[in-house]
Design goal:
- The chain is of the alpha/beta class.
- The chain has helices at 28-33, 41-56, 76-85, 131-134, 170-173, 208-211; strands at residues 4-5, 12-14, 17-20, 60-63, 90-94, 108-110, 115-117, 120-123, 138-141, 147-151, 157-167, 185-188, 221-224, 229-232.
- The protein has one domain (4-235): Purple Acid Phosphatase, chain A, domain 2, CATH 3.60.21.
- The chain is built from six helices and 14 strands.
- The strands form two sheets. Strands 7, 8, 9, 10, 11, 12, 13 and 14 form an eight-stranded mixed β-sheet that branches. The chain has a six-stranded mixed β-sheet with strand order 1-2-3-4-5-6, with helices on one face.
- Helix 2 (41-56) packs parallel to helix 3.
């Protein structure tokens, strides 16, 4: 079974599981510090996820890290949101670099090196994936928040979150892993939180998977969340 990319959504559906990443619940605090007031942002995000669970009839919700925006402690907003989502589906969280104290949530917690779910290896991306993950056909990683930045003919700037799919580089992977899938593909997920995004061509904080060239990022295919193929990353200006 192949993973299904949900049309117009930064989400994957696979084996009765809805898979997302980088929700950053509780981001309201950071927005407030910048003079932006939106106390219901996380609530709206939660409702969007709930609707996708209902539409797909998912039994599980897998969040590939950075569930919350606060790095060190579990905020009340995140705790409440996860508790409510757990009433709709089993919640499985892969720990991200923002997920301190996430163990206090009403969810099953997986360490940052990830786990295998069928033929999907799911990790956050800020640390080395486990061998279990690297043995999978597809490796799903969050953390990068891939976003396209382009200008139209009038010179206006546009930003659009995107999917990035890259082939494995077996020679590079073999320097770090004894057992792995030579034909695996890396899926970089767009952040579910629409406020987040970064240019992969300029981002210097890519994590060990990409910093060590385990996958051929320059030749990676870039797709919009609408399913449109933009081209190879190296050809996008």
């Amino acid at each position: 079974m192949e993973p299904s990319f949900l049309y117009q959504e930064p989400a994957i559906f696979y084996r009765k599981a809805l898979i997302i990443g980088d929700t950053h619940f509780g981001i309201e605090k950071r927005l407030s510090e910048k003079g932006i007031s939106d106390s219901a942002f996380s609530e709206r995000l939660m409702k969007m996820i709930g609707q996708l669970i209902e539409q797909t009839k998912a039994d599980r919700l897998i969040i590939a890290g950075d569930v919350k925006d606060e790095i060190t402690h579990l905020d009340d907003m995140t705790a409440r949101v996860i508790s409510e989502l757990a009433e709709a589906a089993e919640v499985i969280i892969v720990k991200g670099n923002h997920d301190g104290e996430i163990e206090k949530c009403k969810a099953k917690i997986v360490e940052a090196d990830g786990f295998a779910y069928g033929q999907l290896g799911i990790c956050h991306g800020h640390s080395w994936p486990s061998e279990e993950v690297m043995a999978c056909k597809w490796i799903v990683s969050a953390h990068q928040h891939p976003r396209l930045h382009f200008r139209d003919k009038s010179g206006k700037h546009h930003f659009e979150n995107c999917w990035v799919i890259a082939d494995a580089d077996p020679e590079e992977i073999a320097k770090h892993y004894e057992n792995f899938n030579k034909k695996s593909k890396l899926i970089l997920m767009p952040a579910f939180n629409p406020l987040l995004g970064s240019d992969l061509q300029k981002d210097e904080h890519l994590g060990p998977i990409l910093n060590n060239n385990l996958f051929k990022l320059n030749d990676a295919l870039v797709f919009t969340v609408h399913g449109m193929l933009i081209g190879k990353l190296k050809d996008i200006e």
